[in-house]
Predict the structure.
Amino acid sequence: MIPRISVSHAGYSIGGTTIVDDVTLDVGEVEFISVVGPNGAGKTTLLRLIAGDLKPSRGTVSLAGHAPTAMRPRALALVRAVLRPDAGEGIPFTVRTVVTLGRHPYRRDPANSAARDTEVVDDALAATEITHLADRVVATLSTGERTRVAIARVLAQDTPIVLLDEPTTALDMGHQEATMALLHGVARQGRTVVAVLHDVNAAAAYTDRVVVMDHGAVRAVGSPDRVLSDDLLSEIYREPIRVVPHPFRATPMVLASRPLPGQDTGDR
Amino acid sequence: MTERGESPRRGVTLILSLFAIALLAVVAASLYFGAVRLAPSEVLGVIARKVGWPLGPDPTVRAEAVVWHIRAPRITMGIITGVALAFSGAALQGVFRNPMADPHLLGIGPGAAVGGAVGTLVGGTAGGIFGGVVAGVLAALVLRVLVETRATERARFILVGVALGLALSAWVGFAVFAGDRTKVPSVEFWLLGSFSSTTWATVGRAVVFVAVGAAVIVAARRTLDVLALGEAEARHLGVNVGVFITAVILTVGVVVGAVVGAAGVIVFVGLLIPHVVRRILGPRHGTLLAGCAMVGPLFVVGADLAARTLFSPVEIPVGLVTAAIAGPFFLWLARRDSRVVT
Protein backbone atom coordinates (compact mmCIF):
# COMPACT_ATOMS: atom_id res chain seq x y z
CA MET A 1 0.00 0.00 0.00
CA ILE A 2 1.16 3.51 -0.82
CA PRO A 3 1.51 5.52 2.42
CA ARG A 4 -0.71 8.60 2.60
CA ILE A 5 2.30 10.81 3.22
CA SER A 6 5.74 9.82 2.08
CA VAL A 7 8.72 12.08 2.66
CA SER A 8 11.99 10.79 1.25
CA HIS A 9 15.35 12.46 1.94
CA ALA A 10 13.58 15.81 1.67
CA GLY A 11 15.52 18.99 2.31
CA TYR A 12 14.72 22.66 2.03
CA SER A 13 17.26 25.47 1.80
CA ILE A 14 16.82 29.15 1.24
CA GLY A 15 19.63 31.65 0.72
CA GLY A 16 22.26 29.05 1.57
CA THR A 17 20.64 28.21 4.91
CA THR A 18 19.35 24.68 5.28
CA ILE A 19 16.06 24.70 7.17
CA VAL A 20 15.04 21.09 6.66
CA ASP A 21 17.73 18.49 6.07
CA ASP A 22 17.32 14.96 4.76
CA VAL A 23 13.97 14.09 6.32
CA THR A 24 12.51 10.66 5.62
CA LEU A 25 9.08 9.83 7.01
CA ASP A 26 6.20 7.58 6.00
CA VAL A 27 2.75 8.14 7.48
CA GLY A 28 0.09 5.48 7.09
CA GLU A 29 -3.66 5.80 6.95
CA VAL A 30 -5.12 6.03 10.42
CA GLU A 31 -2.48 7.92 12.32
CA PHE A 32 -2.17 10.97 14.49
CA ILE A 33 1.39 12.22 14.23
CA SER A 34 2.93 15.08 16.15
CA VAL A 35 6.03 17.04 15.25
CA VAL A 36 7.86 18.53 18.24
CA GLY A 37 11.13 20.33 18.72
CA PRO A 38 12.58 23.69 19.75
CA ASN A 39 11.86 26.96 17.93
CA GLY A 40 13.64 27.02 14.60
CA ALA A 41 13.88 23.24 14.36
CA GLY A 42 12.18 23.25 10.94
CA LYS A 43 8.79 21.86 12.06
CA THR A 44 6.68 24.42 10.21
CA THR A 45 8.83 24.13 7.09
CA LEU A 46 8.42 20.35 7.10
CA LEU A 47 4.65 20.80 7.38
CA ARG A 48 4.70 23.30 4.50
CA LEU A 49 6.70 20.86 2.37
CA ILE A 50 4.03 18.22 3.03
CA ALA A 51 1.24 20.77 2.35
CA GLY A 52 2.72 21.63 -1.05
CA ASP A 53 3.36 25.26 -0.05
CA LEU A 54 7.09 24.75 -0.63
CA LYS A 55 8.94 22.65 -3.16
CA PRO A 56 11.70 20.56 -1.60
CA SER A 57 15.22 21.59 -2.59
CA ARG A 58 16.30 17.96 -2.35
CA GLY A 59 14.47 14.66 -2.10
CA THR A 60 10.74 14.13 -2.61
CA VAL A 61 7.41 14.57 -0.86
CA SER A 62 4.35 12.68 -2.03
CA LEU A 63 0.73 12.57 -0.93
CA ALA A 64 -0.94 9.28 -1.94
CA GLY A 65 1.75 8.87 -4.59
CA HIS A 66 1.65 12.40 -6.06
CA ALA A 67 4.04 15.30 -5.50
CA PRO A 68 1.84 18.04 -3.94
CA THR A 69 3.63 20.87 -5.76
CA ALA A 70 2.84 19.18 -9.10
CA MET A 71 -0.88 18.79 -8.35
CA ARG A 72 -3.59 21.19 -9.48
CA PRO A 73 -4.62 23.42 -6.55
CA ARG A 74 -8.17 22.10 -6.43
CA ALA A 75 -7.12 18.43 -6.60
CA LEU A 76 -4.64 19.10 -3.81
CA ALA A 77 -7.37 20.80 -1.75
CA LEU A 78 -9.40 17.58 -1.91
CA VAL A 79 -6.44 15.65 -0.46
CA ARG A 80 -5.14 17.85 2.34
CA ALA A 81 -6.41 20.62 4.57
CA VAL A 82 -4.07 23.01 6.38
CA LEU A 83 -4.38 25.01 9.56
CA ARG A 84 -1.90 27.85 9.92
CA PRO A 85 -1.09 29.55 13.21
CA ASP A 86 -2.80 32.91 13.92
CA ALA A 87 -5.61 31.94 11.57
CA GLY A 88 -8.65 34.14 11.31
CA GLU A 89 -7.41 37.50 12.51
CA GLY A 90 -9.40 40.37 11.01
CA ILE A 91 -11.83 38.22 9.07
CA PRO A 92 -15.12 40.11 8.69
CA PHE A 93 -17.31 37.05 7.98
CA THR A 94 -19.46 35.12 10.42
CA VAL A 95 -18.23 31.84 11.86
CA ARG A 96 -20.70 29.86 9.75
CA THR A 97 -19.56 31.60 6.56
CA VAL A 98 -15.89 30.91 7.27
CA VAL A 99 -16.52 27.24 8.04
CA THR A 100 -18.68 26.97 4.90
CA LEU A 101 -15.78 28.38 2.85
CA GLY A 102 -14.01 25.17 3.85
CA ARG A 103 -16.35 23.51 1.34
CA HIS A 104 -14.95 25.64 -1.52
CA PRO A 105 -13.04 22.74 -3.17
CA TYR A 106 -16.36 20.88 -3.63
CA ARG A 107 -18.06 23.82 -5.33
CA ARG A 108 -18.22 22.24 -8.78
CA ASP A 109 -18.39 18.66 -7.57
CA PRO A 110 -21.62 17.07 -8.90
CA ALA A 111 -21.61 14.58 -6.02
CA ASN A 112 -21.77 17.46 -3.53
CA SER A 113 -24.89 19.42 -2.62
CA ALA A 114 -25.93 22.39 -0.51
CA ALA A 115 -27.55 19.97 1.94
CA ARG A 116 -24.31 18.02 2.22
CA ASP A 117 -22.38 21.28 2.81
CA THR A 118 -24.79 22.27 5.60
CA GLU A 119 -24.51 18.84 7.19
CA VAL A 120 -20.69 18.83 7.15
CA VAL A 121 -20.52 22.42 8.42
CA ASP A 122 -22.98 21.70 11.25
CA ASP A 123 -20.93 18.66 12.27
CA ALA A 124 -17.69 20.68 12.21
CA LEU A 125 -19.26 23.45 14.32
CA ALA A 126 -20.52 20.89 16.84
CA ALA A 127 -17.22 18.98 16.97
CA THR A 128 -15.26 22.14 17.76
CA GLU A 129 -17.92 23.34 20.24
CA ILE A 130 -18.63 26.61 18.43
CA THR A 131 -22.25 26.05 17.32
CA HIS A 132 -23.31 28.84 19.70
CA LEU A 133 -20.88 31.21 17.93
CA ALA A 134 -22.16 30.43 14.40
CA ASP A 135 -23.59 33.90 13.74
CA ARG A 136 -20.76 35.86 15.36
CA VAL A 137 -18.25 37.78 13.26
CA VAL A 138 -14.86 36.03 13.43
CA ALA A 139 -12.89 39.27 13.91
CA THR A 140 -14.72 39.87 17.21
CA LEU A 141 -13.85 36.48 18.73
CA SER A 142 -11.02 35.67 21.13
CA THR A 143 -7.84 34.07 19.81
CA GLY A 144 -8.88 30.69 21.18
CA GLU A 145 -12.33 30.89 19.60
CA ARG A 146 -10.78 31.90 16.27
CA THR A 147 -8.50 28.87 16.43
CA ARG A 148 -11.50 26.61 16.90
CA VAL A 149 -13.21 28.29 13.91
CA ALA A 150 -10.14 27.56 11.81
CA ILE A 151 -10.12 23.93 12.98
CA ALA A 152 -13.82 23.66 12.10
CA ARG A 153 -13.05 25.05 8.62
CA VAL A 154 -10.29 22.47 8.18
CA LEU A 155 -12.67 19.68 9.25
CA ALA A 156 -15.34 20.94 6.82
CA GLN A 157 -12.83 20.55 4.01
CA ASP A 158 -13.21 16.82 4.72
CA THR A 159 -9.83 15.67 3.38
CA PRO A 160 -7.99 12.38 4.05
CA ILE A 161 -4.95 14.36 5.23
CA VAL A 162 -5.15 17.11 7.85
CA LEU A 163 -2.07 19.25 8.57
CA LEU A 164 -2.07 21.57 11.57
CA ASP A 165 0.55 24.08 12.64
CA GLU A 166 0.22 24.71 16.37
CA PRO A 167 -3.52 24.07 16.63
CA THR A 168 -3.53 24.30 20.44
CA THR A 169 -1.00 27.03 21.24
CA ALA A 170 -3.66 29.75 21.68
CA LEU A 171 -6.12 27.57 23.57
CA ASP A 172 -6.79 27.35 27.29
CA MET A 173 -6.18 24.05 29.06
CA GLY A 174 -9.76 22.83 28.67
CA HIS A 175 -10.02 23.60 24.98
CA GLN A 176 -6.50 22.29 24.44
CA GLU A 177 -7.48 18.88 25.81
CA ALA A 178 -10.80 18.94 23.95
CA THR A 179 -9.04 19.81 20.69
CA MET A 180 -6.42 17.08 21.09
CA ALA A 181 -9.16 14.55 21.86
CA LEU A 182 -11.11 15.80 18.82
CA LEU A 183 -8.08 15.45 16.53
CA HIS A 184 -7.43 11.99 17.95
CA GLY A 185 -11.01 11.07 17.08
CA VAL A 186 -10.65 12.57 13.61
CA ALA A 187 -7.63 10.34 13.00
CA ARG A 188 -9.54 7.30 14.29
CA GLN A 189 -12.30 8.02 11.78
CA GLY A 190 -9.80 7.23 9.05
CA ARG A 191 -7.92 10.45 8.49
CA THR A 192 -4.22 11.11 8.68
CA VAL A 193 -3.52 13.98 11.06
CA VAL A 194 -0.12 15.67 11.35
CA ALA A 195 0.19 18.42 13.96
CA VAL A 196 3.13 20.62 14.87
CA LEU A 197 2.89 20.96 18.65
CA HIS A 198 4.77 22.96 21.23
CA ASP A 199 3.22 21.09 24.11
CA VAL A 200 5.21 17.85 24.35
CA ASN A 201 2.77 16.53 26.96
CA ALA A 202 -0.13 16.91 24.56
CA ALA A 203 1.93 15.08 21.94
CA ALA A 204 2.77 12.34 24.46
CA ALA A 205 -0.83 11.91 25.58
CA TYR A 206 -2.73 11.96 22.31
CA THR A 207 -0.55 11.19 19.30
CA ASP A 208 0.35 7.76 17.94
CA ARG A 209 3.84 8.75 16.91
CA VAL A 210 6.06 11.69 17.71
CA VAL A 211 8.54 13.17 15.24
CA VAL A 212 11.29 14.91 17.21
CA MET A 213 13.12 17.56 15.18
CA ASP A 214 16.18 19.67 15.87
CA HIS A 215 18.31 21.79 13.53
CA GLY A 216 16.21 20.83 10.53
CA ALA A 217 16.71 17.10 10.99
CA VAL A 218 14.54 14.36 12.43
CA ARG A 219 16.19 13.10 15.62
CA ALA A 220 13.68 10.37 16.42
CA VAL A 221 10.36 8.99 15.24
CA GLY A 222 8.19 6.59 17.20
CA SER A 223 5.55 6.09 19.87
CA PRO A 224 5.80 8.65 22.70
CA ASP A 225 6.98 6.15 25.34
CA ARG A 226 9.80 4.97 23.09
CA VAL A 227 10.94 8.31 21.73
CA LEU A 228 10.56 10.78 24.58
CA SER A 229 13.58 10.39 26.85
CA ASP A 230 15.38 12.59 29.37
CA ASP A 231 18.55 12.69 27.31
CA LEU A 232 17.01 13.49 23.91
CA LEU A 233 14.63 16.17 25.16
CA SER A 234 17.24 17.77 27.43
CA GLU A 235 19.63 17.87 24.49
CA ILE A 236 17.30 19.36 21.87
CA TYR A 237 15.66 21.89 24.20
CA ARG A 238 19.04 22.76 25.84
CA GLU A 239 17.27 22.51 29.19
CA PRO A 240 17.15 19.87 31.92
CA ILE A 241 14.02 17.82 31.26
CA ARG A 242 12.73 14.66 32.93
CA VAL A 243 10.25 12.17 31.55
CA VAL A 244 8.19 10.30 34.15
CA PRO A 245 5.13 8.05 33.93
CA HIS A 246 1.89 10.02 34.11
CA PRO A 247 0.33 9.31 37.51
CA PHE A 248 -3.02 8.14 36.09
CA ARG A 249 -2.68 8.05 32.30
CA ALA A 250 -0.69 5.32 30.61
CA THR A 251 1.51 7.90 28.88
CA PRO A 252 4.82 9.57 29.57
CA MET A 253 4.79 12.96 31.22
CA VAL A 254 7.44 15.53 30.37
CA LEU A 255 8.59 17.87 33.13
CA ALA A 256 10.97 20.80 33.21
CA SER A 257 13.51 19.99 35.92
CA ARG A 258 15.67 23.09 36.15
CA PRO A 259 16.25 23.74 39.88
CA LEU A 260 14.30 26.76 41.04
CA PRO A 261 16.18 29.57 42.77
CA GLY A 262 16.35 28.94 46.52
CA GLN A 263 14.96 25.43 46.28
CA ASP A 264 16.93 22.25 46.37
CA THR A 265 14.86 19.85 44.32
CA GLY A 266 17.64 17.28 44.49
CA ASP A 267 17.61 14.25 42.26
CA ARG A 268 15.32 11.56 43.52
CA MET B 1 -18.72 46.86 21.14
CA THR B 2 -20.95 46.60 18.12
CA GLU B 3 -20.31 43.73 15.78
CA ARG B 4 -19.17 44.83 12.37
CA GLY B 5 -19.13 42.62 9.37
CA GLU B 6 -21.50 40.22 7.80
CA SER B 7 -25.15 41.10 8.11
CA PRO B 8 -27.89 38.50 8.34
CA ARG B 9 -29.53 37.32 5.11
CA ARG B 10 -32.95 38.69 5.90
CA GLY B 11 -33.24 42.31 4.96
CA VAL B 12 -30.82 42.06 2.06
CA THR B 13 -33.63 41.78 -0.49
CA LEU B 14 -35.46 44.70 1.07
CA ILE B 15 -32.36 46.90 1.05
CA LEU B 16 -31.55 45.98 -2.56
CA SER B 17 -35.14 46.86 -3.50
CA LEU B 18 -34.80 50.25 -1.83
CA PHE B 19 -31.54 50.85 -3.71
CA ALA B 20 -33.30 49.95 -6.98
CA ILE B 21 -36.18 52.33 -6.26
CA ALA B 22 -33.72 55.12 -5.44
CA LEU B 23 -31.86 54.44 -8.68
CA LEU B 24 -35.11 54.59 -10.69
CA ALA B 25 -35.98 57.88 -8.99
CA VAL B 26 -32.60 59.40 -9.89
CA VAL B 27 -32.91 58.16 -13.47
CA ALA B 28 -36.39 59.67 -13.75
CA ALA B 29 -35.15 62.95 -12.31
CA SER B 30 -32.22 62.95 -14.74
CA LEU B 31 -34.58 62.46 -17.69
CA TYR B 32 -36.73 65.34 -16.49
CA PHE B 33 -34.28 67.99 -15.28
CA GLY B 34 -31.90 69.78 -17.61
CA ALA B 35 -31.08 72.94 -19.52
CA VAL B 36 -34.17 72.45 -21.70
CA ARG B 37 -37.44 72.55 -19.79
CA LEU B 38 -39.93 69.87 -20.77
CA ALA B 39 -43.27 68.83 -19.33
CA PRO B 40 -43.27 65.48 -17.47
CA SER B 41 -45.86 64.22 -19.98
CA GLU B 42 -43.46 64.96 -22.85
CA VAL B 43 -40.63 63.03 -21.18
CA LEU B 44 -42.98 60.14 -20.42
CA GLY B 45 -44.33 60.21 -23.98
CA VAL B 46 -40.84 59.86 -25.49
CA ILE B 47 -39.76 57.02 -23.20
CA ALA B 48 -43.12 55.20 -23.55
CA ARG B 49 -42.88 55.24 -27.33
CA LYS B 50 -39.30 53.96 -27.25
CA VAL B 51 -40.39 50.93 -25.25
CA GLY B 52 -43.21 50.34 -27.74
CA TRP B 53 -46.13 51.78 -25.79
CA PRO B 54 -47.73 54.80 -27.53
CA LEU B 55 -49.00 56.93 -24.68
CA GLY B 56 -50.56 60.41 -24.90
CA PRO B 57 -49.97 62.91 -27.72
CA ASP B 58 -46.99 62.49 -30.05
CA PRO B 59 -43.94 64.17 -28.53
CA THR B 60 -42.30 67.04 -30.37
CA VAL B 61 -39.10 66.46 -32.33
CA ARG B 62 -37.32 68.70 -29.86
CA ALA B 63 -38.52 66.66 -26.87
CA GLU B 64 -37.45 63.45 -28.53
CA ALA B 65 -34.02 64.88 -29.35
CA VAL B 66 -33.45 66.12 -25.79
CA VAL B 67 -34.81 63.11 -23.91
CA TRP B 68 -33.83 60.24 -26.18
CA HIS B 69 -30.68 61.45 -27.93
CA ILE B 70 -29.06 63.59 -25.25
CA ARG B 71 -30.28 62.63 -21.77
CA ALA B 72 -31.00 58.92 -22.15
CA PRO B 73 -27.57 57.90 -23.52
CA ARG B 74 -25.68 59.87 -20.88
CA ILE B 75 -27.83 58.39 -18.12
CA THR B 76 -27.23 54.91 -19.53
CA MET B 77 -23.50 55.61 -19.71
CA GLY B 78 -23.68 56.82 -16.11
CA ILE B 79 -25.27 53.53 -15.08
CA ILE B 80 -22.64 51.52 -16.97
CA THR B 81 -19.85 53.63 -15.46
CA GLY B 82 -21.28 53.26 -11.96
CA VAL B 83 -21.43 49.48 -12.24
CA ALA B 84 -17.98 49.29 -13.84
CA LEU B 85 -16.20 51.44 -11.25
CA ALA B 86 -18.00 50.07 -8.17
CA PHE B 87 -17.39 46.47 -9.31
CA SER B 88 -13.74 47.27 -10.08
CA GLY B 89 -13.22 48.82 -6.65
CA ALA B 90 -14.85 45.87 -4.91
CA ALA B 91 -12.83 43.37 -6.95
CA LEU B 92 -9.49 45.15 -6.38
CA GLN B 93 -10.18 45.60 -2.66
CA GLY B 94 -10.93 41.87 -2.62
CA VAL B 95 -7.87 40.57 -4.45
CA PHE B 96 -5.44 42.91 -2.70
CA ARG B 97 -7.28 42.55 0.63
CA ASN B 98 -6.72 46.26 0.94
CA PRO B 99 -9.60 48.65 1.59
CA MET B 100 -7.75 51.51 -0.16
CA ALA B 101 -7.59 49.71 -3.52
CA ASP B 102 -9.32 51.62 -6.30
CA PRO B 103 -8.83 51.42 -10.09
CA HIS B 104 -8.09 55.14 -10.44
CA LEU B 105 -5.94 55.46 -7.33
CA LEU B 106 -3.87 52.50 -8.53
CA GLY B 107 -3.21 53.99 -11.96
CA ILE B 108 -5.47 51.82 -14.13
CA GLY B 109 -7.85 54.74 -14.83
CA PRO B 110 -5.11 57.25 -15.73
CA GLY B 111 -3.47 54.57 -17.89
CA ALA B 112 -6.74 54.00 -19.70
CA ALA B 113 -7.06 57.77 -20.18
CA VAL B 114 -3.72 57.86 -22.02
CA GLY B 115 -4.96 55.09 -24.32
CA GLY B 116 -8.32 56.81 -24.66
CA ALA B 117 -6.72 60.09 -25.73
CA VAL B 118 -4.37 58.44 -28.21
CA GLY B 119 -7.17 56.17 -29.46
CA THR B 120 -9.48 59.13 -30.03
CA LEU B 121 -6.78 60.90 -32.08
CA VAL B 122 -6.47 57.81 -34.26
CA GLY B 123 -10.03 56.55 -34.49
CA GLY B 124 -12.59 58.94 -32.96
CA THR B 125 -14.99 57.81 -30.22
CA ALA B 126 -14.70 54.13 -31.09
CA GLY B 127 -10.91 54.46 -31.05
CA GLY B 128 -11.16 56.14 -27.64
CA ILE B 129 -12.94 53.17 -26.08
CA PHE B 130 -10.73 50.62 -27.80
CA GLY B 131 -7.59 52.57 -26.81
CA GLY B 132 -8.93 52.87 -23.26
CA VAL B 133 -9.41 49.11 -23.00
CA VAL B 134 -5.96 48.29 -24.41
CA ALA B 135 -4.22 50.82 -22.18
CA GLY B 136 -6.35 49.87 -19.18
CA VAL B 137 -5.24 46.26 -19.54
CA LEU B 138 -1.60 47.34 -19.98
CA ALA B 139 -1.75 49.53 -16.85
CA ALA B 140 -3.35 46.62 -14.98
CA LEU B 141 -0.49 44.36 -16.11
CA VAL B 142 2.10 46.90 -14.95
CA LEU B 143 0.32 47.11 -11.59
CA ARG B 144 0.23 43.31 -11.34
CA VAL B 145 3.97 43.08 -11.93
CA LEU B 146 4.80 45.97 -9.59
CA VAL B 147 2.88 44.56 -6.65
CA GLU B 148 3.67 40.91 -7.40
CA THR B 149 5.92 40.36 -4.45
CA ARG B 150 4.88 43.16 -2.12
CA ALA B 151 1.11 43.01 -2.19
CA THR B 152 0.90 42.70 1.56
CA GLU B 153 2.77 45.92 2.27
CA ARG B 154 -0.15 48.28 2.25
CA ALA B 155 1.64 51.62 2.31
CA ARG B 156 4.07 50.69 -0.43
CA PHE B 157 1.28 49.22 -2.52
CA ILE B 158 -0.75 52.42 -2.52
CA LEU B 159 2.36 54.55 -3.16
CA VAL B 160 3.22 52.43 -6.19
CA GLY B 161 -0.28 52.90 -7.57
CA VAL B 162 -0.41 56.63 -6.89
CA ALA B 163 3.00 57.19 -8.50
CA LEU B 164 1.96 55.15 -11.52
CA GLY B 165 -1.30 57.12 -11.76
CA LEU B 166 0.35 60.55 -11.53
CA ALA B 167 2.93 59.67 -14.19
CA LEU B 168 0.22 58.36 -16.49
CA SER B 169 -1.95 61.44 -15.88
CA ALA B 170 0.94 63.56 -17.15
CA TRP B 171 1.04 61.40 -20.27
CA VAL B 172 -2.65 62.11 -20.86
CA GLY B 173 -1.66 65.77 -21.06
CA PHE B 174 1.22 65.04 -23.45
CA ALA B 175 -1.09 63.02 -25.70
CA VAL B 176 -3.73 65.75 -25.79
CA PHE B 177 -1.35 68.66 -26.32
CA ALA B 178 0.83 66.85 -28.85
CA GLY B 179 -2.17 65.77 -30.92
CA ASP B 180 -4.66 67.68 -33.02
CA ARG B 181 -6.71 69.37 -30.34
CA THR B 182 -9.77 69.64 -32.57
CA LYS B 183 -9.92 65.85 -32.70
CA VAL B 184 -9.47 64.91 -29.06
CA PRO B 185 -11.37 65.95 -25.92
CA SER B 186 -9.58 68.17 -23.43
CA VAL B 187 -7.32 67.10 -20.58
CA GLU B 188 -10.18 68.20 -18.35
CA PHE B 189 -12.45 65.59 -19.98
CA TRP B 190 -9.95 62.78 -19.49
CA LEU B 191 -8.90 63.54 -15.92
CA LEU B 192 -12.20 64.79 -14.47
CA GLY B 193 -14.69 62.87 -16.58
CA SER B 194 -17.79 63.94 -18.47
CA PHE B 195 -20.84 62.40 -20.09
CA SER B 196 -21.64 65.53 -22.11
CA SER B 197 -20.53 64.01 -25.40
CA THR B 198 -22.01 60.54 -24.80
CA THR B 199 -24.11 59.15 -27.66
CA TRP B 200 -25.90 55.83 -28.10
CA ALA B 201 -22.95 54.74 -30.23
CA THR B 202 -20.61 55.31 -27.27
CA VAL B 203 -22.94 53.37 -24.99
CA GLY B 204 -23.20 50.50 -27.49
CA ARG B 205 -19.44 50.03 -27.65
CA ALA B 206 -18.69 50.45 -23.94
CA VAL B 207 -21.50 48.20 -22.73
CA VAL B 208 -20.04 45.13 -24.42
CA PHE B 209 -16.75 45.34 -22.51
CA VAL B 210 -18.42 46.23 -19.23
CA ALA B 211 -21.02 43.44 -19.50
CA VAL B 212 -18.38 40.79 -20.12
CA GLY B 213 -16.08 42.13 -17.39
CA ALA B 214 -18.90 42.50 -14.86
CA ALA B 215 -19.98 38.91 -15.54
CA VAL B 216 -16.42 37.70 -14.86
CA ILE B 217 -16.29 39.65 -11.58
CA VAL B 218 -19.69 38.27 -10.50
CA ALA B 219 -18.45 34.75 -11.29
CA ALA B 220 -15.42 35.41 -9.08
CA ARG B 221 -17.49 36.37 -6.01
CA ARG B 222 -17.09 33.13 -4.06
CA THR B 223 -13.39 32.90 -4.75
CA LEU B 224 -13.06 36.52 -3.57
CA ASP B 225 -14.71 35.40 -0.30
CA VAL B 226 -12.16 32.59 0.03
CA LEU B 227 -9.31 35.01 -0.66
CA ALA B 228 -10.53 37.18 2.22
CA LEU B 229 -9.34 34.39 4.55
CA GLY B 230 -5.77 35.04 3.34
CA GLU B 231 -3.68 34.05 0.34
CA ALA B 232 -2.25 30.95 2.01
CA GLU B 233 -5.73 29.84 3.13
CA ALA B 234 -7.11 30.38 -0.38
CA ARG B 235 -4.30 28.25 -1.80
CA HIS B 236 -5.05 25.55 0.77
CA LEU B 237 -8.69 25.67 -0.33
CA GLY B 238 -7.77 24.98 -3.94
CA VAL B 239 -7.55 28.49 -5.40
CA ASN B 240 -4.77 29.10 -7.90
CA VAL B 241 -4.11 32.44 -6.24
CA GLY B 242 -1.64 33.93 -8.72
CA VAL B 243 -3.77 33.13 -11.76
CA PHE B 244 -6.95 34.30 -10.04
CA ILE B 245 -5.50 37.67 -8.99
CA THR B 246 -4.06 38.25 -12.45
CA ALA B 247 -7.39 37.41 -14.11
CA VAL B 248 -9.33 39.77 -11.84
CA ILE B 249 -6.88 42.66 -12.30
CA LEU B 250 -6.90 42.28 -16.09
CA THR B 251 -10.71 42.15 -16.07
CA VAL B 252 -10.71 45.39 -14.10
CA GLY B 253 -8.38 46.79 -16.79
CA VAL B 254 -10.94 45.96 -19.49
CA VAL B 255 -13.95 47.31 -17.59
CA VAL B 256 -12.26 50.50 -16.40
CA GLY B 257 -10.60 51.00 -19.80
CA ALA B 258 -13.97 50.95 -21.55
CA VAL B 259 -15.66 53.49 -19.27
CA VAL B 260 -12.62 55.78 -19.11
CA GLY B 261 -12.35 55.64 -22.91
CA ALA B 262 -15.99 56.70 -23.08
CA ALA B 263 -16.24 59.23 -20.26
CA GLY B 264 -12.80 59.89 -18.74
CA VAL B 265 -11.59 59.31 -15.18
CA ILE B 266 -14.38 59.77 -12.63
CA VAL B 267 -12.70 59.57 -9.26
CA PHE B 268 -13.75 58.09 -5.90
CA VAL B 269 -16.58 55.87 -7.19
CA GLY B 270 -14.52 52.67 -7.01
CA LEU B 271 -13.10 53.60 -3.62
CA LEU B 272 -16.24 54.83 -1.91
CA ILE B 273 -19.17 52.75 -3.17
CA PRO B 274 -17.89 49.32 -2.04
CA HIS B 275 -17.17 50.80 1.42
CA VAL B 276 -20.68 52.19 1.74
CA VAL B 277 -22.32 48.99 0.49
CA ARG B 278 -20.13 46.83 2.72
CA ARG B 279 -21.27 48.78 5.75
CA ILE B 280 -24.91 48.23 4.84
CA LEU B 281 -24.93 44.72 3.34
CA GLY B 282 -21.80 43.13 4.81
CA PRO B 283 -18.54 41.91 3.29
CA ARG B 284 -19.61 38.83 1.31
CA HIS B 285 -18.89 39.52 -2.32
CA GLY B 286 -22.20 38.19 -3.67
CA THR B 287 -24.33 40.73 -1.82
CA LEU B 288 -21.58 43.36 -2.04
CA LEU B 289 -21.62 43.23 -5.85
CA ALA B 290 -25.43 43.22 -5.95
CA GLY B 291 -25.42 46.38 -3.84
CA CYS B 292 -22.64 47.96 -5.92
CA ALA B 293 -24.71 47.33 -9.08
CA MET B 294 -27.37 49.63 -7.62
CA VAL B 295 -25.46 52.18 -5.57
CA GLY B 296 -22.64 52.74 -8.12
CA PRO B 297 -25.08 53.88 -10.84
CA LEU B 298 -27.15 55.78 -8.26
CA PHE B 299 -24.08 57.80 -7.26
CA VAL B 300 -22.73 58.41 -10.78
CA VAL B 301 -26.09 59.32 -12.37
CA GLY B 302 -26.90 61.52 -9.38
CA ALA B 303 -23.50 63.23 -9.60
CA ASP B 304 -23.99 63.80 -13.33
CA LEU B 305 -27.41 65.33 -12.67
CA ALA B 306 -25.74 67.72 -10.25
CA ALA B 307 -22.89 68.37 -12.71
CA ARG B 308 -25.24 69.61 -15.39
CA THR B 309 -27.83 71.42 -13.27
CA LEU B 310 -25.85 73.05 -10.42
CA PHE B 311 -24.40 75.86 -12.55
CA SER B 312 -26.81 75.54 -15.49
CA PRO B 313 -26.41 76.36 -18.32
CA VAL B 314 -22.69 75.82 -17.59
CA GLU B 315 -21.86 72.15 -17.11
CA ILE B 316 -19.05 71.12 -14.77
CA PRO B 317 -17.01 67.87 -15.02
CA VAL B 318 -18.78 65.05 -13.19
CA GLY B 319 -15.53 64.02 -11.47
CA LEU B 320 -15.55 67.33 -9.59
CA VAL B 321 -18.93 66.43 -8.12
CA THR B 322 -17.96 62.87 -7.18
CA ALA B 323 -14.76 64.11 -5.54
CA ALA B 324 -16.54 66.91 -3.71
CA ILE B 325 -19.16 64.55 -2.28
CA ALA B 326 -17.09 61.42 -1.79
CA GLY B 327 -13.88 62.95 -0.45
CA PRO B 328 -15.20 64.24 2.88
CA PHE B 329 -17.55 61.26 3.21
CA PHE B 330 -14.65 58.90 2.72
CA LEU B 331 -12.52 60.72 5.31
CA TRP B 332 -15.39 60.35 7.77
CA LEU B 333 -15.69 56.64 6.94
CA ALA B 334 -11.93 56.13 7.27
CA ARG B 335 -12.01 57.77 10.70
CA ARG B 336 -14.79 55.48 11.86
CA ASP B 337 -13.26 52.41 10.22
CA SER B 338 -9.87 53.04 11.81
CA ARG B 339 -11.34 51.86 15.10
CA VAL B 340 -12.13 48.38 13.83
CA VAL B 341 -10.33 45.76 11.85
CA THR B 342 -11.07 45.89 8.17
